[in-house]
Amino acid sequence: MSKRTSSVDRINVTSVTTASTVEIGDSSQIQAFSRALAVQREHEIFYGNEMDFSQFDIFNEPLILEPITDEIAFETIALNPIIRVNQIKIIGISTSSLLHIGNSRNISMESRIKHIRHLRDND
User: Fold this and answer.
1) Which residues, at least 6 apart from 112, have a Cβ–Cβ distance to it below 8 Å?
2) Using CB atoms within 10 A as the burial measure, which of 21, 89, 106, 116 is most buried?
3) What is the C-alpha separation between 58 and 122, in angstroms, rounded?
4) DSSP string, 8-27
């Protein structure tokens, strides 16, 4: 992988949350992991420690990444190996997301969210 220099004049990020990263500079390894239970109820009731991630299959299933076997033929000519950007404006980076300015070797990111709705019976 040919190296390039990234030049950004201005970055404005309002919010970075939940296993997310703003990385400026080259990285060898980036890994982010997030899991969440999102419970929606018709009434605002919270019972405390009422749920556990292990109760839900989505958090226990292995992540299967199929290997990429496609052959790709390409030729690159880097006449000017500088990526120049005037301004980056981002409102929010959340849930295992990444703003990375620079070169990367390996990036692995995973986010698992279980949405649950507790609705009243209409009896």
Assistant:
1) 34, 35, 36, 58, 59
2) 21
3) 30
4) EEEEEEEEE-SS-EEEES-E
Residue 99 belongs to a domain: yes
> Has residue 78 been placed in a domain?
yes
20-58 pLDDT per residue, tens? 889 999 999 988 888 888 888 887 777 777 778 888 999
Residue 122 CA to residue 93 CA, distance in Å, equals 39
Residue type at 101 in one-letter notation:
I
Query: What element of type H or E holds 44?
Result: none
Q: Alpha-carbon distance 97 to 103, whole Å?
A: 16
- The gap from C-alpha 101 to its chain's centroid, in whole angstroms, comes to 15
d(CA 79, CA 120): 64
Residues 6 or more apart in contact with residue 106 via CB below 8 angstroms: 28, 29, 30
pTM above 0.70, yes or no: no
Number of domains in the chain: 1
